[in-house]
Amino acid sequence: MNSERFVVTILGFEHALSSAITGALDLFAFAGISWQRIHGQTATPKFKVQVASDHGKPFVCSNQLTMTPHIAIQDVSHTDILLVPTIGGDIDKVLAAMQNQLVHIRRLQNLGADIAGNCTGVFVLAEAGILNDLRATTHWGYADKFKHLYPLVDLESDKMVTEQNSVFCSGGGMAWIDLALLLIERYCGHQVASDLAKSHVLDISRTNQMAYASSRQRKFHQDKDILAVQDYIEANYQSQLNLPSVAKRFNITERTLLRRFRAATDTTPLQYLQSIRLEQARKLLETPSTPIETIVNLVGYDDLSSFARLFKRRIGVPPSQYRAKFVRER
Questions:
Q1: Which fold has domain 2-211?
Q2: pLDDT tens, position by position, 264-294
Q3: Is the pTM of this model over 0.70?
Q4: Which helix (H) or strand (E) holds 91?
Q5: E strands along the chain, which residues?
Q6: How many other C-beta atoms lie within 10 A of the C-beta of residue 217?
Q7: Domain made up of 215-326: CATH architecture
Q8: Domain-by-domain residue ranges, the chain?
């Protein structure tokens, strides 16, 4: 039975996020077991899971937990999946310390392994050069840094999970859940992944991380004029703003405003206005007292149905479902 199990290798390193390692270990290890135990069925493990590190050395995670690996990454000759967990420490320092391990990521990919990275662990995949010209995602809060470091990667930071050419990426720190379930479904089928998710009380259908993101990430640039435009939009998002009126206020041509705004923020002024309005709507939806119809007007929209369609398209869920998920009773 052991020879029939798929092999999952999780790469451990100094300052990794321990929960992204142990959590993924648990999910893969319990595929074919949890649901079966609950229902009195024969348990059949689907994966053999191991943690590897540089030369098999113990490593200290970002929470100061020391982990002892099963194997040295240098000794891994076969794995079906290689998973790089979240970087929990300083990204630049971790990447500098991992240079000797990048060759083994490329080696295992060349041997046919699926390569996966979670959250800021996707930086490691990009540093290894295996994401060039491929779709990827990472934590929304580090999207600007990622784009600056790896301009050849097609970053889709709104996505929870991406996949192309057997390279898998996932967004926020806990998105290892979505990543692991996707890979379990890939190897074992939908039913096994669905049963595992239900037995662990997990949502198997998260596709978008914009419900958690902040538009403030787009202010990490040095164009002072565009920062002023952003401040103006944030202060007047309830008004009927448009490109001509904003350009006129700042004594700049529409074409120049559009070009500089896009260069600084990777979006347009009207898209930024839309993101600010949606962010304010999300904040209001997180309190139970304000009717959704009122929220629509408070953030600068007139039509509830068109707002609801926009909200679902950008955030991933309808306004009512978002409120049910995030509302805080006061």
A1: Rossmann fold (3.40.50)
A2: 888 899 989 998 898 888 888 877 788 999 9
A3: no
A4: helix 91-97
A5: 6-11, 47-53, 59-60, 66-67, 71-72, 81-84, 114-118, 135-136, 154-155, 161-164, 167-170
A6: 17
A7: Orthogonal Bundle (1.10)
A8: 2-211, 215-326
